[in-house]
Hints:
Blueprint: H1 10-17, E1 19-20, H2 29-35, E2 40-45, H3 51-65, E3 70-74, H4 82-87, H5 90-95, H6 97-100, H7 111-120, E4 126-130, H8 143-157, E5 162-168, H9 179-185, E6 196-202, E7 205-211, E8 216-222, H10 227-230, E9 236-240, E10 251-255, E11 257-258, H11 273-292, H12 300-318, H13 323-326, H14 328-339, H15 343-358, H16 364-377, E12 388-390, E13 397-399, H17 408-414, H18 420-425
Parallel strand pairs: 2-5, 2-6, 3-4, 3-5, 6-10, 7-11
Antiparallel strand pairs: 1-9, 7-8, 9-10, 12-13
Helix pairs in contact: 3-7, 8-9, 11-12, 11-14, 14-16, 15-16
Amino acid sequence: MYLGSPAQDATTLLRNSAVRIENPEHLSDSVYNLLSCFQIVMVGEMHGTSKPAQLVTGLAQLLTSKGDSVSVGLEILPELMRCYDSLHTDSSIFKSEFFANPPFKDGRGSFAWANLIATLNDNPKIQIFFYDITKGEEEKYSRDSIMFTKIKRQYLLHPSWKMITLSGNAHNSNQPDKMITYLRQDKELNLDAKKICSLNNDYLKGTCHANFGKGLELRYFESHESVWDTTFPFPDYLYLYSPKSNARYSGVYYTRFMTPAKMVFNYQEKIDTAAIRRQLKTIYDRDQKIRSQGDSIQFADYIDSTNQIIVESLIYRYGWLDRSIFGATSNYVCFLVIQHAPLEKQKKYLPLMMQSVTAGESRACDLALLQDRILMRENKMQIYGSQLVPDKKTGSWVFYPIEDEINVNVRRANVGLQPIEEYAKHFGIDYKLPDPNKY
Protein backbone atom coordinates (compact mmCIF):
# COMPACT_ATOMS: atom_id res chain seq x y z
CA MET A 1 0.00 0.00 0.00
CA TYR A 2 1.36 3.41 -1.03
CA LEU A 3 0.62 6.47 1.11
CA GLY A 4 2.50 9.11 -0.80
CA SER A 5 6.16 8.73 0.19
CA PRO A 6 8.54 5.95 -0.87
CA ALA A 7 10.95 6.86 1.94
CA GLN A 8 8.79 5.55 4.80
CA ASP A 9 6.62 2.51 5.34
CA ALA A 10 2.85 2.94 5.48
CA THR A 11 2.47 2.33 9.22
CA THR A 12 5.09 4.95 10.09
CA LEU A 13 3.48 7.48 7.77
CA LEU A 14 0.07 6.97 9.32
CA ARG A 15 1.36 7.10 12.89
CA ASN A 16 3.25 10.31 12.20
CA SER A 17 0.60 12.15 10.21
CA ALA A 18 -2.94 10.86 10.75
CA VAL A 19 -5.31 12.89 12.93
CA ARG A 20 -7.93 11.04 14.95
CA ILE A 21 -11.62 11.87 14.44
CA GLU A 22 -13.47 10.94 17.61
CA ASN A 23 -16.67 12.87 16.90
CA PRO A 24 -16.96 14.30 13.35
CA GLU A 25 -19.33 17.03 14.51
CA HIS A 26 -16.91 18.23 17.22
CA LEU A 27 -13.40 18.34 15.79
CA SER A 28 -10.15 18.99 17.63
CA ASP A 29 -7.56 21.69 17.10
CA SER A 30 -5.40 19.01 15.45
CA VAL A 31 -7.90 18.94 12.58
CA TYR A 32 -7.76 22.74 12.37
CA ASN A 33 -3.97 22.64 12.22
CA LEU A 34 -4.15 20.07 9.43
CA LEU A 35 -6.74 21.76 7.19
CA SER A 36 -6.80 25.49 7.98
CA CYS A 37 -4.01 26.19 5.47
CA PHE A 38 -6.38 25.38 2.59
CA GLN A 39 -8.78 27.88 1.07
CA ILE A 40 -11.15 25.18 -0.19
CA VAL A 41 -11.77 21.73 1.34
CA MET A 42 -13.76 19.39 -0.91
CA VAL A 43 -15.24 16.40 0.93
CA GLY A 44 -16.32 13.37 -1.09
CA GLU A 45 -18.69 10.59 -0.09
CA MET A 46 -20.49 7.54 -1.31
CA HIS A 47 -24.05 8.87 -1.38
CA GLY A 48 -26.34 7.32 1.20
CA THR A 49 -23.81 7.36 4.04
CA SER A 50 -23.68 9.59 7.12
CA LYS A 51 -20.17 10.42 8.27
CA PRO A 52 -18.92 12.77 5.49
CA ALA A 53 -21.87 15.14 6.08
CA GLN A 54 -21.09 15.10 9.79
CA LEU A 55 -17.44 15.92 9.01
CA VAL A 56 -18.50 18.94 6.92
CA THR A 57 -20.70 20.08 9.82
CA GLY A 58 -17.87 19.78 12.31
CA LEU A 59 -15.28 21.40 10.06
CA ALA A 60 -17.49 24.42 9.30
CA GLN A 61 -18.13 24.95 13.02
CA LEU A 62 -14.43 24.50 13.83
CA LEU A 63 -13.37 27.11 11.26
CA THR A 64 -15.92 29.68 12.43
CA SER A 65 -14.90 29.11 16.06
CA LYS A 66 -11.40 30.22 15.01
CA GLY A 67 -12.69 33.40 13.40
CA ASP A 68 -13.18 32.34 9.77
CA SER A 69 -16.27 32.90 7.67
CA VAL A 70 -17.24 29.87 5.60
CA SER A 71 -19.18 29.08 2.44
CA VAL A 72 -20.62 25.55 2.57
CA GLY A 73 -21.67 24.08 -0.76
CA LEU A 74 -23.76 20.96 -1.30
CA GLU A 75 -24.34 18.94 -4.47
CA ILE A 76 -28.02 19.90 -4.55
CA LEU A 77 -30.05 21.44 -7.35
CA PRO A 78 -30.88 25.00 -6.13
CA GLU A 79 -34.43 24.89 -7.51
CA LEU A 80 -35.24 22.01 -5.16
CA MET A 81 -34.39 24.11 -2.09
CA ARG A 82 -36.72 27.08 -2.79
CA CYS A 83 -38.74 26.52 0.38
CA TYR A 84 -35.58 26.78 2.46
CA ASP A 85 -34.20 29.72 0.48
CA SER A 86 -37.36 31.73 1.10
CA LEU A 87 -37.80 30.96 4.82
CA HIS A 88 -34.43 29.74 6.17
CA THR A 89 -36.15 27.91 9.02
CA ASP A 90 -35.32 24.41 10.19
CA SER A 91 -38.72 23.07 9.15
CA SER A 92 -38.32 24.57 5.66
CA ILE A 93 -35.25 22.39 5.13
CA PHE A 94 -37.25 19.19 5.54
CA LYS A 95 -40.19 20.59 3.55
CA SER A 96 -38.00 21.53 0.58
CA GLU A 97 -38.59 19.33 -2.46
CA PHE A 98 -35.05 17.92 -2.40
CA PHE A 99 -35.77 16.20 0.92
CA ALA A 100 -39.58 15.88 1.05
CA ASN A 101 -40.29 14.74 -2.51
CA PRO A 102 -37.11 14.45 -4.56
CA PRO A 103 -37.51 13.81 -8.30
CA PHE A 104 -34.52 11.47 -8.05
CA LYS A 105 -33.55 9.24 -5.15
CA ASP A 106 -29.82 8.58 -5.00
CA GLY A 107 -29.00 8.73 -1.29
CA ARG A 108 -28.45 12.49 -0.94
CA GLY A 109 -31.92 13.36 0.41
CA SER A 110 -30.93 12.05 3.82
CA PHE A 111 -31.21 13.18 7.41
CA ALA A 112 -27.41 13.45 7.35
CA TRP A 113 -27.56 16.20 4.70
CA ALA A 114 -30.68 17.85 6.15
CA ASN A 115 -29.14 17.92 9.62
CA LEU A 116 -25.98 19.46 8.18
CA ILE A 117 -28.00 22.40 6.87
CA ALA A 118 -30.08 22.65 10.06
CA THR A 119 -27.02 22.66 12.31
CA LEU A 120 -25.23 25.37 10.33
CA ASN A 121 -28.38 27.36 9.52
CA ASP A 122 -28.20 29.73 12.51
CA ASN A 123 -24.46 30.40 12.33
CA PRO A 124 -24.03 34.00 11.08
CA LYS A 125 -20.51 33.24 9.83
CA ILE A 126 -21.70 30.47 7.49
CA GLN A 127 -23.40 30.83 4.10
CA ILE A 128 -24.88 27.67 2.57
CA PHE A 129 -25.18 27.37 -1.22
CA PHE A 130 -26.22 24.66 -3.68
CA TYR A 131 -24.50 23.83 -6.95
CA ASP A 132 -25.94 20.81 -8.74
CA ILE A 133 -27.07 21.24 -12.37
CA THR A 134 -30.50 21.90 -13.84
CA LYS A 135 -31.90 19.26 -16.17
CA GLY A 136 -30.79 19.98 -19.73
CA GLU A 137 -27.65 21.93 -18.80
CA GLU A 138 -25.47 18.88 -19.40
CA GLU A 139 -26.55 18.87 -23.06
CA LYS A 140 -24.20 21.81 -23.66
CA TYR A 141 -21.47 21.29 -21.08
CA SER A 142 -20.24 18.54 -18.78
CA ARG A 143 -21.83 18.25 -15.36
CA ASP A 144 -18.60 18.91 -13.47
CA SER A 145 -17.83 22.04 -15.51
CA ILE A 146 -21.28 23.45 -14.71
CA MET A 147 -20.94 22.67 -11.01
CA PHE A 148 -17.50 24.30 -11.12
CA THR A 149 -18.95 27.55 -12.47
CA LYS A 150 -21.47 27.66 -9.61
CA ILE A 151 -18.76 27.03 -7.04
CA LYS A 152 -16.58 29.69 -8.69
CA ARG A 153 -19.44 32.20 -8.58
CA GLN A 154 -19.85 31.64 -4.83
CA TYR A 155 -16.12 31.82 -4.21
CA LEU A 156 -15.82 35.18 -6.00
CA LEU A 157 -18.59 36.59 -3.79
CA HIS A 158 -16.38 35.97 -0.72
CA PRO A 159 -12.78 35.35 -1.86
CA SER A 160 -11.39 35.80 1.66
CA TRP A 161 -13.71 33.17 3.15
CA LYS A 162 -12.96 29.50 3.55
CA MET A 163 -15.08 27.11 1.48
CA ILE A 164 -16.19 23.51 2.11
CA THR A 165 -18.04 21.41 -0.45
CA LEU A 166 -19.76 18.03 -0.19
CA SER A 167 -20.33 15.85 -3.24
CA GLY A 168 -19.89 12.34 -4.55
CA ASN A 169 -16.30 11.11 -4.35
CA ALA A 170 -15.85 11.18 -8.14
CA HIS A 171 -16.39 14.93 -8.51
CA ASN A 172 -13.41 16.01 -6.41
CA SER A 173 -10.87 13.47 -7.69
CA ASN A 174 -7.71 14.78 -9.34
CA GLN A 175 -8.67 13.77 -12.86
CA PRO A 176 -9.41 15.63 -16.10
CA ASP A 177 -12.87 17.21 -16.42
CA LYS A 178 -13.62 17.09 -12.67
CA MET A 179 -14.67 20.03 -10.47
CA ILE A 180 -11.39 20.25 -8.62
CA THR A 181 -9.37 20.22 -11.85
CA TYR A 182 -11.38 23.13 -13.24
CA LEU A 183 -10.86 25.04 -9.99
CA ARG A 184 -7.11 24.54 -10.02
CA GLN A 185 -6.75 25.44 -13.69
CA ASP A 186 -8.87 28.61 -13.52
CA LYS A 187 -6.49 31.59 -13.92
CA GLU A 188 -8.90 34.09 -12.38
CA LEU A 189 -9.16 32.12 -9.16
CA ASN A 190 -5.41 31.39 -8.96
CA LEU A 191 -5.91 28.35 -6.70
CA ASP A 192 -3.17 25.73 -6.83
CA ALA A 193 -2.81 22.37 -5.08
CA LYS A 194 -1.61 24.10 -1.90
CA LYS A 195 -4.93 25.97 -1.59
CA ILE A 196 -7.42 23.19 -2.43
CA CYS A 197 -7.76 19.95 -0.47
CA SER A 198 -9.87 17.06 -1.76
CA LEU A 199 -10.80 14.32 0.71
CA ASN A 200 -12.00 10.89 -0.33
CA ASN A 201 -14.10 8.91 2.16
CA ASP A 202 -12.65 5.40 2.35
CA TYR A 203 -13.66 2.50 4.59
CA LEU A 204 -13.12 -1.17 5.45
CA LYS A 205 -16.74 -2.27 5.37
CA GLY A 206 -20.29 -1.15 5.92
CA THR A 207 -23.60 -0.34 4.32
CA CYS A 208 -24.86 2.56 2.26
CA HIS A 209 -28.38 3.51 1.18
CA ALA A 210 -28.13 4.57 -2.45
CA ASN A 211 -29.24 3.98 -6.03
CA PHE A 212 -27.14 1.50 -7.99
CA GLY A 213 -29.44 1.47 -11.01
CA LYS A 214 -32.54 -0.18 -9.57
CA GLY A 215 -33.79 2.47 -7.16
CA LEU A 216 -32.77 3.05 -3.55
CA GLU A 217 -31.40 -0.01 -1.81
CA LEU A 218 -29.19 -0.94 1.12
CA ARG A 219 -25.96 -2.46 -0.12
CA TYR A 220 -23.12 -3.92 1.92
CA PHE A 221 -19.47 -3.43 0.95
CA GLU A 222 -16.35 -5.00 2.39
CA SER A 223 -12.66 -4.92 1.46
CA HIS A 224 -9.62 -6.75 2.81
CA GLU A 225 -8.14 -5.51 6.08
CA SER A 226 -5.01 -3.43 5.56
CA VAL A 227 -2.66 -1.03 7.33
CA TRP A 228 -5.50 1.51 7.31
CA ASP A 229 -7.32 -0.73 9.80
CA THR A 230 -4.50 -2.21 11.88
CA THR A 231 -2.38 0.86 12.67
CA PHE A 232 -4.68 2.49 15.23
CA PRO A 233 -7.10 1.23 17.89
CA PHE A 234 -9.55 3.97 16.87
CA PRO A 235 -11.58 3.60 13.65
CA ASP A 236 -11.79 7.11 12.12
CA TYR A 237 -9.10 9.59 11.13
CA LEU A 238 -7.83 12.07 8.53
CA TYR A 239 -4.67 11.54 6.54
CA LEU A 240 -3.15 13.85 3.90
CA TYR A 241 -0.87 12.50 1.18
CA SER A 242 2.44 14.14 0.37
CA PRO A 243 2.00 17.13 -2.01
CA LYS A 244 4.35 15.27 -4.37
CA SER A 245 2.05 12.26 -4.48
CA ASN A 246 0.18 11.29 -7.63
CA ALA A 247 -2.84 10.17 -5.60
CA ARG A 248 -6.30 10.97 -6.96
CA TYR A 249 -7.11 12.95 -3.81
CA SER A 250 -5.24 15.23 -1.39
CA GLY A 251 -6.11 12.93 1.47
CA VAL A 252 -8.48 10.43 3.04
CA TYR A 253 -11.24 10.68 5.60
CA TYR A 254 -10.99 7.09 6.78
CA THR A 255 -13.99 5.58 8.54
CA ARG A 256 -13.42 1.92 9.27
CA PHE A 257 -17.16 1.28 9.25
CA MET A 258 -19.50 2.93 6.74
CA THR A 259 -22.95 3.68 8.17
CA PRO A 260 -26.08 4.04 6.02
CA ALA A 261 -28.07 7.26 6.01
CA LYS A 262 -31.84 7.30 6.45
CA MET A 263 -33.88 9.17 3.84
CA VAL A 264 -36.13 12.04 4.98
CA PHE A 265 -38.93 11.22 2.51
CA ASN A 266 -39.26 7.69 3.92
CA TYR A 267 -40.62 8.99 7.21
CA GLN A 268 -44.34 9.72 7.33
CA GLU A 269 -43.90 11.62 10.58
CA LYS A 270 -41.47 14.44 9.93
CA ILE A 271 -39.08 14.55 12.86
CA ASP A 272 -37.99 17.99 14.00
CA THR A 273 -34.42 16.86 14.50
CA ALA A 274 -33.15 20.43 14.85
CA ALA A 275 -35.38 21.06 17.88
CA ILE A 276 -34.37 17.73 19.42
CA ARG A 277 -30.68 18.52 18.90
CA ARG A 278 -31.08 21.88 20.64
CA GLN A 279 -32.91 20.22 23.52
CA LEU A 280 -30.21 17.59 23.94
CA LYS A 281 -27.44 20.20 23.70
CA THR A 282 -29.02 21.94 26.71
CA ILE A 283 -29.13 18.61 28.55
CA TYR A 284 -25.46 17.98 27.74
CA ASP A 285 -24.41 21.40 29.04
CA ARG A 286 -26.37 20.85 32.23
CA ASP A 287 -24.90 17.36 32.72
CA GLN A 288 -21.33 18.55 32.26
CA LYS A 289 -21.66 21.64 34.47
CA ILE A 290 -22.40 19.38 37.42
CA ARG A 291 -19.46 17.07 36.78
CA SER A 292 -16.70 19.24 35.33
CA GLN A 293 -17.43 22.55 37.04
CA GLY A 294 -19.23 21.46 40.21
CA ASP A 295 -22.09 23.79 39.31
CA SER A 296 -25.27 23.02 41.32
CA ILE A 297 -23.67 19.81 42.55
CA GLN A 298 -26.09 19.71 45.48
CA PHE A 299 -28.93 19.30 42.96
CA ALA A 300 -27.15 16.62 40.87
CA ASP A 301 -29.72 13.88 41.52
CA TYR A 302 -32.60 16.17 40.60
CA ILE A 303 -30.89 17.41 37.43
CA ASP A 304 -29.96 13.87 36.36
CA SER A 305 -33.49 12.60 36.92
CA THR A 306 -34.93 15.52 34.94
CA ASN A 307 -32.55 14.80 32.08
CA GLN A 308 -33.55 11.13 32.20
CA ILE A 309 -37.25 11.93 31.89
CA ILE A 310 -36.62 13.94 28.72
CA VAL A 311 -34.27 11.43 27.12
CA GLU A 312 -36.49 8.46 28.01
CA SER A 313 -39.46 10.17 26.37
CA LEU A 314 -37.39 10.58 23.18
CA ILE A 315 -36.24 6.95 23.29
CA TYR A 316 -39.85 5.83 23.78
CA ARG A 317 -40.89 7.78 20.68
CA TYR A 318 -37.93 7.27 18.34
CA GLY A 319 -35.92 4.38 19.80
CA TRP A 320 -32.25 4.83 20.59
CA LEU A 321 -31.31 8.14 18.94
CA ASP A 322 -29.49 7.09 15.77
CA ARG A 323 -26.53 9.15 14.63
CA SER A 324 -27.74 9.15 11.02
CA ILE A 325 -30.97 10.95 11.96
CA PHE A 326 -30.22 12.96 15.10
CA GLY A 327 -26.47 13.53 14.71
CA ALA A 328 -23.44 12.27 16.61
CA THR A 329 -23.82 14.71 19.50
CA SER A 330 -27.45 13.82 20.24
CA ASN A 331 -26.54 10.14 20.05
CA TYR A 332 -23.76 10.70 22.58
CA VAL A 333 -26.03 12.66 24.94
CA CYS A 334 -28.51 9.76 24.84
CA PHE A 335 -25.74 7.45 26.05
CA LEU A 336 -24.42 9.95 28.59
CA VAL A 337 -27.75 10.45 30.33
CA ILE A 338 -28.36 6.70 30.57
CA GLN A 339 -24.78 6.24 31.80
CA HIS A 340 -25.64 8.53 34.70
CA ALA A 341 -29.01 6.86 35.38
CA PRO A 342 -29.85 4.27 38.07
CA LEU A 343 -28.86 0.65 37.46
CA GLU A 344 -32.36 -0.52 36.48
CA LYS A 345 -32.53 2.16 33.76
CA GLN A 346 -29.10 1.21 32.46
CA LYS A 347 -30.05 -2.47 32.21
CA LYS A 348 -33.35 -1.55 30.55
CA TYR A 349 -31.73 0.37 27.70
CA LEU A 350 -28.56 -1.70 27.29
CA PRO A 351 -30.13 -4.01 24.64
CA LEU A 352 -31.29 -0.98 22.61
CA MET A 353 -27.81 0.51 22.63
CA MET A 354 -26.28 -2.84 21.69
CA GLN A 355 -28.59 -3.03 18.67
CA SER A 356 -27.65 0.52 17.72
CA VAL A 357 -23.93 -0.30 17.86
CA THR A 358 -24.48 -3.40 15.72
CA ALA A 359 -26.27 -1.22 13.15
CA GLY A 360 -23.38 1.27 13.12
CA GLU A 361 -25.56 3.97 14.67
CA SER A 362 -23.71 4.26 18.02
CA ARG A 363 -20.11 3.97 19.11
CA ALA A 364 -18.79 0.70 20.52
CA CYS A 365 -16.57 2.62 22.95
CA ASP A 366 -19.63 4.24 24.57
CA LEU A 367 -21.31 0.86 24.88
CA ALA A 368 -18.18 -0.50 26.59
CA LEU A 369 -18.41 2.20 29.26
CA LEU A 370 -22.06 1.42 29.90
CA GLN A 371 -21.35 -2.30 30.17
CA ASP A 372 -18.53 -1.69 32.65
CA ARG A 373 -20.70 0.63 34.74
CA ILE A 374 -23.44 -2.00 34.98
CA LEU A 375 -20.97 -4.76 35.91
CA MET A 376 -19.43 -2.61 38.64
CA ARG A 377 -22.83 -1.81 40.11
CA GLU A 378 -23.62 -5.52 40.16
CA ASN A 379 -20.36 -6.19 42.04
CA LYS A 380 -18.91 -8.04 39.07
CA MET A 381 -15.50 -7.52 37.46
CA GLN A 382 -15.45 -4.98 34.64
CA ILE A 383 -14.31 -5.90 31.11
CA TYR A 384 -12.74 -2.78 29.58
CA GLY A 385 -11.17 -1.01 32.57
CA SER A 386 -13.20 2.17 32.17
CA GLN A 387 -14.39 2.45 35.79
CA LEU A 388 -12.33 3.83 38.67
CA VAL A 389 -13.09 4.10 42.38
CA PRO A 390 -11.36 5.93 45.25
CA ASP A 391 -8.89 3.85 47.25
CA LYS A 392 -10.31 3.23 50.73
CA LYS A 393 -7.01 4.12 52.42
CA THR A 394 -5.52 6.92 50.32
CA GLY A 395 -8.59 8.34 48.58
CA SER A 396 -6.72 8.38 45.25
CA TRP A 397 -8.23 6.84 42.13
CA VAL A 398 -7.68 3.13 41.41
CA PHE A 399 -9.16 0.82 38.80
CA TYR A 400 -12.17 -1.22 39.81
CA PRO A 401 -11.19 -4.92 39.40
CA ILE A 402 -10.79 -5.97 35.75
CA GLU A 403 -11.51 -9.42 34.40
CA ASP A 404 -8.57 -10.98 32.51
CA GLU A 405 -6.64 -7.79 33.16
CA ILE A 406 -3.57 -8.86 31.21
CA ASN A 407 -5.57 -8.76 27.94
CA VAL A 408 -7.59 -5.62 28.66
CA ASN A 409 -5.87 -3.58 25.94
CA VAL A 410 -6.90 -6.10 23.30
CA ARG A 411 -10.53 -5.66 24.28
CA ARG A 412 -10.14 -1.88 24.51
CA ALA A 413 -8.65 -1.71 21.01
CA ASN A 414 -11.53 -3.76 19.62
CA VAL A 415 -14.03 -1.09 20.69
CA GLY A 416 -11.89 1.95 19.84
CA LEU A 417 -10.61 2.81 23.34
CA GLN A 418 -7.06 4.04 23.94
CA PRO A 419 -4.58 1.78 25.82
CA ILE A 420 -5.33 1.63 29.52
CA GLU A 421 -1.90 3.08 30.36
CA GLU A 422 -2.78 6.31 28.52
CA TYR A 423 -6.28 6.36 29.99
CA ALA A 424 -4.83 6.05 33.51
CA LYS A 425 -2.74 9.20 33.07
CA HIS A 426 -5.91 11.31 32.98
CA PHE A 427 -6.45 10.31 36.61
CA GLY A 428 -2.84 10.74 37.73
CA ILE A 429 -2.20 6.98 37.77
CA ASP A 430 1.09 5.43 36.63
CA TYR A 431 -0.47 2.14 35.54
CA LYS A 432 1.33 -0.99 34.39
CA LEU A 433 -0.28 -4.15 33.08
CA PRO A 434 0.15 -7.26 35.25
CA ASP A 435 3.33 -9.28 34.73
CA PRO A 436 2.40 -12.21 32.40
CA ASN A 437 5.02 -14.35 34.12
CA LYS A 438 2.93 -14.34 37.27
CA TYR A 439 0.03 -16.00 35.51
